[in-house]
Amino acid sequence: MPTPVTNKATTTWNGDLFTGSGTTNLETSGAGSFPVNWKARAEESGSATTPEELIASAHATCFAMQFSNELKENDTPPTTLRTSAEVTFEVGKGITGIALSVTGQVDGISADDFSRVAESAKTNCPVSQALKAVDVTLTASLG
């Protein structure tokens, strides 16, 4: 059995929730440090990253990996998959939904089979499984 892989990120926060800010660091990969603050999370995305943006990145990546594997197991390996995830956060409610979307270039597969395998990948994706408390929708199309 393979050895479990553990990844690490850290965040340093300064001040209170509404006027404070911080930095989150991708420690395992060293890929970067990103500013975080409440305003970006609750009022206007874009000025800094948010937990929801990081979840969206993780979910889009995990789903694409799972889907590519399931397409290969279906004897229809993908040429390209373009996947996005939109995570919705509502103040006072938390994360209220995730919308996955994928467009793929896959030879030898029907649109129905593409959608069927995509739904299976959504169910089997480890990040989807970790986020079962949230409604996850999926739009899948050949492009």
From TrEMBL:
Residues 1-33 are annotated as: Disordered. One of its GO terms (biological process) is response to oxidative stress. Gene3D superfamilies: 3.30.300.20. GO terms for molecular function: peroxidase activity. This is Peroxiredoxin. It comes from Tersicoccus phoenicis. Residues 1-31 have a biased composition (Polar residues). Pfam families: OsmC. SUPFAM superfamilies: OsmC-like (SSF82784).
